[in-house]
Amino acid sequence: MKSFMAKTDEINREWYVIDATDKVLGRLASEIATILTGKQKTIYTPHVDTGDYVIVINADKIKLTGNKMQQMNHVYHTGYPGGLKKVPYERLIEEKPERIIELTVKGMLPKSSLGRKMAKKLKVYKGAEHNHEAQQPKVYEI
User: Fold this and answer.
1) Do the beta carbons of residue 13 and residue 132 sit within 8 Å?
2) 53-57 and 73-77 strand pairing
3) Which of 41, 55, 107, 126 is 20 to 30 Å from 98 by CA-CA measure?
4) How many structural domains comprise the chain?
């Protein structure tokens, strides 16, 4: 008996639309990461990108529990001496709500070239409109 290994050209990728209205950020991101990695599929292979595409709409209506909106910060470094920056989630959700979902999901994906390839299949939009109607995405309920 042989173990099944998925090959890149044999993978059938689907497109899913997820509405982020009043969804908790962490629970939403873990569900999206599972879809992007392809772990819900029977052909899942750890070293092959078997995941599907995900479109997230209404990113500006995401919900954070407790006082995380005021307490949590997005921390990054510019690369220059003294370049540590902290942006509160409250300000980030006003300016770039798409970025919060992208960063949270990216943190749940593998830290390798495969994870970067998976992250490119995530499309996040601030409002209810997206430009992927040609792909005929299916609605995914969480």
Assistant:
1) no
2) unpaired
3) 41
4) 1
